[in-house]
């Protein structure tokens, strides 16, 4: 008997999620038509990436199929200030191709200012947020061992709350438990999401401020500001991207603000995307077609494990943006390299001990 745990995102997936690509995209067109009819004041974020290219084509193809009786969609490109020229050119070309306006929206706080004031990302958004709080609050890493060695973990966890007020999430993160003192099964929410990370930070403390706030100020805040006046928000998030998106999300849902969010591509796989691109002749930006990138976004974001390698792909075409990325995120790149070396060394040591036994 297979007792593998499946989240609701998996078990409650709609029937069309398992259709072949042609039938799946026809189903998605029907969903888009239905939601645009129900909520005519609609906005869609267009990033210039491959998911956005599929999404805008689906939306405009659906509108054309309905003789443009469906309401027009407001498209917005959130320019963080660290975008490739290839992306900015592609946004303009896409607007011209579909005969739509894609408004460029810039943050009130630049990515340079946000990075200098709050810090820079390292590994992931969750890791960055928790490590940033650990740095600011001065929580000792030793609480992890203190918790592990305790006989009454619930009492020990309660004691930590009294000792370190308003640090609940970071305590849970370091001790790999929940607020009741029970060991956390979802590793994405703990420091164990990255192997040996606790030991690494103890042995090699970071000499820079870690934070994920640059994303908040350069993407999330501008998005909230412009999206607040719309009934329906369409995004290109996909389950196949993994991470938090593979755990938290539905194709269509009401938000806490009373708006509605439509993730039209949520059940679209990489294979589905490839079929759609070939079938409809979609051209991605030069970042994909020429530079050889597999993902785009804020150029050089350290959250990507391929950030440094991707920058080298970009360098021959856009050396200035590569230089800017290194100036902003360089310490995170170097720290990640040091972590990878530390992890590899620990693995070799572990394998050596196993071989001896």
Number of distinct beta strands: 6
- Helices, by number, come to 15
CATH architecture title of the largest domain: 3-Layer(aba) Sandwich
Work out the helicity level: 40-55%
**Class per helix and strand makeup:** alpha/beta
CATH fold naming of the largest domain: Rossmann fold
| Oligomeric state | single chain
CATH superfamily of the largest domain: HUPs
Low-confidence stretches: 1-7
Q: Which sheet architecture does the biggest sheet show?
A: 6 strands, mixed
How are the SSEs ordered, and which strands pair?
Layout: H1 8-11, H2 21-38, E1 42-45, H3 50-65, E2 74-78, H4 85-98, E3 102-105, H5 111-118, H6 125-137, H7 143-149, H8 153-163, H9 168-175, H10 197-203, H11 213-227, E4 232-235, E5 252-254, E6 260-263, H12 270-280, H13 286-289, H14 307-314, H15 319-356
Helix pairs in contact: 2-3, 2-12, 5-11, 7-8, 14-15
Please provide a written account of the structure.
With 357 residues, this protein is of the alpha/beta class. It has 2 domains: 9-114 and 212-287, Rossmann fold; 123-203, no CATH class. Helix content is 51%, strand content 7%. It has a 6-stranded mixed sheet, sandwiched between helices. Helix 3 links the parallel strand 1 and strand 2. Helix 2 (21-38) crosses helix 12, helix 7 packs antiparallel against helix 8 (153-163) and helix 14 (307-314) runs antiparallel to helix 15 (319-356). The two termini are 34 Å apart.
């Amino acid at each position: 008997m297979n007792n593998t745990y499946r989240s609701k995102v998996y078990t409650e997936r709609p029937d069309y999620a398992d259709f072949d690509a042609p039938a799946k995209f026809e189903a998605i067109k029907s969903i888009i038509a239905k939601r645009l009819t129900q909520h005519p004041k609609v906005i869609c974020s267009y990033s210039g990436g491959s998911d956005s290219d599929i999404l805008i084509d689906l939306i405009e193809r659906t509108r054309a199929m309905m003789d443009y009786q469906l309401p027009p969609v407001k498209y917005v490109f959130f320019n963080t200030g660290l975008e490739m020229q290839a992306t900015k050119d592609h946004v303009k070309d896409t607007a011209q191709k579909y005969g739509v306006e894609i408004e460029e929206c810039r943050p009130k706080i630049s990515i340079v200012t946000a990075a200098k004031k709050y810090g820079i990302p390292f590994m992931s958004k969750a890791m960055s947020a928790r490590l940033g709080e650990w740095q600011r609050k001065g929580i000792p890493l030793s609480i992890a061992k203190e918790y592990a060695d305790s006989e009454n973990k619930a009492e020990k966890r309660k004691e930590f709350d009294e000792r370190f007020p308003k640090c609940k999430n970071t305590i849970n993160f370091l001790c790999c438990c929940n607020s009741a003192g029970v060991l956390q099964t979802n590793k994405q929410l703990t420091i164990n999401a990255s192997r040996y990370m606790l030991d690494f930070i103890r042995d090699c403390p970071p000499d820079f401020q870690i934070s994920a706030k640059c994303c908040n100020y350069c993407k999330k805040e501008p998005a909230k500001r412009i999206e607040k006046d719309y009934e329906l928000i369409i995004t290109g998030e996909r389950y196949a991207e993994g991470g938090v998106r593979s755990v938290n999300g539905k194709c269509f849902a009401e938000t806490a603000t009373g708006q509605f969010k439509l993730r039209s591509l949520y059940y679209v796989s990489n294979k589905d995307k490839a079929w759609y691109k070939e079938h409809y002749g979609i051209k991605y930006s030069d970042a994909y077609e020429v530079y050889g990138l597999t993902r785009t976004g804020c150029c050089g974001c350290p959250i990507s494990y391929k950030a440094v390698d991707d920058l080298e792909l970009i360098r021959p075409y856009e050396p200035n943006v590569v230089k800017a990325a290194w100036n902003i995120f360089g310490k995170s790149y170097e720290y990640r390299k040091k972590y990878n070396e530390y992890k590899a060394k620990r693995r070799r040591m572990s394998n050596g001990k196993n071989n001896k036994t």
